[in-house]
TrEMBL record:
SUPFAM superfamilies: E set domains, Galactose oxidase, central domain. Residues 64-464 form the Glyoxal oxidase N-terminal domain. Gene3D superfamilies: Galactose oxidase/kelch, beta-propeller (2.130.10.80), Immunoglobulins (2.60.40.10). Residues 481-581 form the Galactose oxidase-like Early set domain. InterPro entries: Gal_Oxase/kelch_b-propeller, Gal_Oxidase_central_sf, Glyoxal_oxidase_N, GO-like_E_set, Ig-like_fold, Ig_E-set. It comes from Xanthoceras sorbifolium. This is Galactose oxidase. The keyword Signal applies. The keyword Transcription regulation does not apply. It comes from the Eukaryota. Keywords: Signal. Residues 1-18 form the signal peptide.
Length: 582
């Protein structure tokens, strides 16, 4: 065990104290010179820039929308029914075909939604009738999908998909009062959903109980006021919008942070009231079709939770406000935005703090990693969303180190090779890899063009999956750990470890990730909580440590449902396991 004793550096400085954690039993790969205090220790950094793997040549449908479904560990992927084509014919057990037009006998015999097995890349066919094009979604308390909106006949639809073996879609085409095309669906503290915005829908509504229909929606002037037009004269307007797929994050006090175009509000959805407007984020437009990206940064919880829990939002990239006009009418592609703004939304006098990314990005995805860092991936360096309106795919993912000092937060990672622009997606997997799929800048399934409809699926391994860090990975013992946790209550997680002891003060971090519904560069309901650790009881059995943690205090902080639970040690996450909070 003492091999390579000479080449490791056994001192690790611990947050805000003089304690020194000395572990002579481990060959730590790299000297950690960065000993400034940070939340729960330092992350292992090796210079490894990550790795790409191609895991499937054919996802059947191009993954315009994607979400990891709890328990079954399958990624649900779907695009649109409008083209009546995909790369996956409906199998015999899903017959008869969908009758598109009974008069002219036009049928659609293709799958438009599939379950993708993340271990084997096998596909399972699903059958959908209403058009999910540019729709929204989220998971129920029981881990089932609720999808809303889409195109034409799908626009007012609520759809349900359970994770049982032979389950398929159930669709209710009149559930919503307003058409929701490019709307955002958000989970509320009680596990219900709100749907905000969409094309020509300056309103919001709550998803009704399954099978019921909303009579009316609630007007939200903010959405009208953030919708851009260009006045071409003579009553002729070019519609830019720049506020579709608004970024909506549930704040830690139960209000909603709603960002559209370059403005944002904190909104109380129960009182139908704007709590306050936050400052404008200058620099350009951030929402569809200008399509920047946004995350609610990891929320830190402690054993004792304070009344006000801070929350930061990050908004990055996008396009200048009139870029869509130039792209659509002149095929003149403007450079994408290169800046980010970060703001503490719970702070009454909050201001945006700007940061500059290593490269410009429009239509990118931001995926929160189990460590609390954020992966920026996919997208383009010029243009906007919409058919053929972008060029220069941004193939280089960037790691945003949420916890580092401003100026030290960005790191460029290993370049991909497959352009992932309009209609691509990124999904965090239990093993800490990120599944990357989709990209279709064509109105239909086209393969004879510069950017063909993309059906290949890849996995990107972030730097923490450096093989030289493998021994740092803790192994959660699912059978003897709590899998259902209750608000504010303690729970226990047992890990099998190569460390002789773990310390709650040291490099240990417990995180909970709410699976995101990702489409068009927006990751709805994405959320990572960093939990308070009460105690670690080492060696309850040789090599097995029992970690006692506190569950999040309420549904405002963590809406009820399934989360991927990770034990992160020295910046290296375990394989995540599913826990349900209620
Ligand atoms: C915010 O966006 C609007 C609409 O695009 C624009 O007119 C305004 O100048 C922008 N404000 C700032 C401060 O950038």
């Amino acid at each position: 065990m003492f091999i390579k004793l000479l080449c490791f550096f056994p001192l690790f400085f611990i947050s805000g104290s003089a304690t020194i954690f000395w572990n002579p039993f481990f060959n730590f790969p790299v000297q950690n010179q960065n000993n400034k205090p940070s939340f729960r220790g330092e992350n292992a950094e090796t210079g490894y820039k990550g790795k790409w793997e191609l895991v499937s040549q054919n996802s059947g449908v191009s993954a315009m929308h994607a979400i990891l479904l709890p328990k079954v560990n399958k990624v649900l992927m779907y695009d649109a029914t409008i083209w009546r084509i995909s790369k996956f014919p409906l199998p015999p057990q899903k017959m008869p075909c969908h009758m598109v037009d009974p008069v002219n006998k036009i049928q659609d015999c293709w799958c438009h939604s599939v379950l993708f097995n993340i271990e084997t890349s096998e596909l399972q066919a699903l059958k959908i009738e209403t058009d999910t094009w540019c729709s929204s979604g989220g998971l129920t308390v029981d881990g089932n999908l609720v999808s809303t909106g889409g195109y034409r006949g799908g626009a007012n639809t609520a759809r349900y998909l359970s994770t049982c073996d032979n389950c398929d879609w159930k669709e209710y085409p009149t559930a919503l009062a307003d058409p929701r095309w490019y709307a955002t669906q958000v989970t509320l503290p009680d596990g219900g959903f709100i749907v905000v915005g969409g094309r020509d829908a300056f309103s919001y509504e709550y998803i009704p109980r399954e099978g019921q229909s909303n009579k009316k929606s609630i007007f939200l002037p903010f959405l009208r006021d953030t919708s851009d037009n260009i006045n071409l004269g003579k009553q002729n307007f070019f519609r830019l919008e720049n506020n579709l797929y608004p970024f909506v994050h549930l704040a830690t006090d139960g209000n909603l942070f709603i960002f559209a175009n370059n403005r944002s509000i904190l909104f109380n959805p129960t009182a139908n009231k704007v709590v306050r407007e936050l400052p404008v984020l200058p620099g350009g437009s951030r929402n569809y079709p200008a399509s920047g990206m946004s995350v609610l940064l990891p929320i830190k919880l402690y054993v004792e939770n304070p009344k006000d829990i801070p929350a930061d939002v990050l908004v990055c990239g996008g396009a200048q406000w009139d870029a869509f006009y130039f792209a659509e009418t002149k095929k003149q592609l403007m450079p994408a935005l290169k800046d980010c703004g970060r703001i503490s939304i719970m702070n009454k006098n909050a201001v945006w703090k700007k940061e500059v990314m290593p490269s410009a990005r429009v239509m990118g995805d931001m995926t929160i990693l189990p460590t609390g860092d954020v992966l920026m991936i996919n997208g383009a360096k010029t243009g906007t969303s919409a058919w053929g309106d972008a060029e220069e795919p941004n193939l280089i993912p960037v790691l945003y180190k949420s916890n580092a000092k401003r100026g030290n937060r960005f790191q460029e990672l290993a370049s991909g090779t497959i352009p992932r622009m309009y209609h691509s997606s990124a999904v965090l997997l239990p093993d800490g890899k990120v599944l990357v799929a989709g990209s279709n800048t064509n109105d239909g399934y086209r393969y004879d063009v510069k950017y063909p409809t993309e059906l290949r699926v890849e996995k990107f391994s972030p730097p923490y999956l450096d093989p030289s860090l493998a021994t740092l990975r803790q192994n959660i013992l699912v059978d003897t750990s709590d899998k259902i946790i209750n608000y504010g209550k303690r729970f226990s997680v047992k890990v099998k470890s190569k460390e002789l002891r773990l310390s709650k003060l040291g490099d240990l971090k417990l995180t909970m990730y709410a699976p995101a519904f990702t489409t068009h560069g927006i990751s709805m309901n994405q959320r990572l909580l960093i939990l308070g650790v009460v105690d670690v009881i080492n060696n309850v059995w040789p090599g097995i440590h029992n970690i006692i943690a506190v569950a999040p205090p309420s549904g405002k902080v963590a809406p009820p449902g399934y989360y991927l639970f990770y034990v992160v040690y020295k910046g290296v996450p375990s394989v995540g396991t599913w826990i349900q909070i209620k």
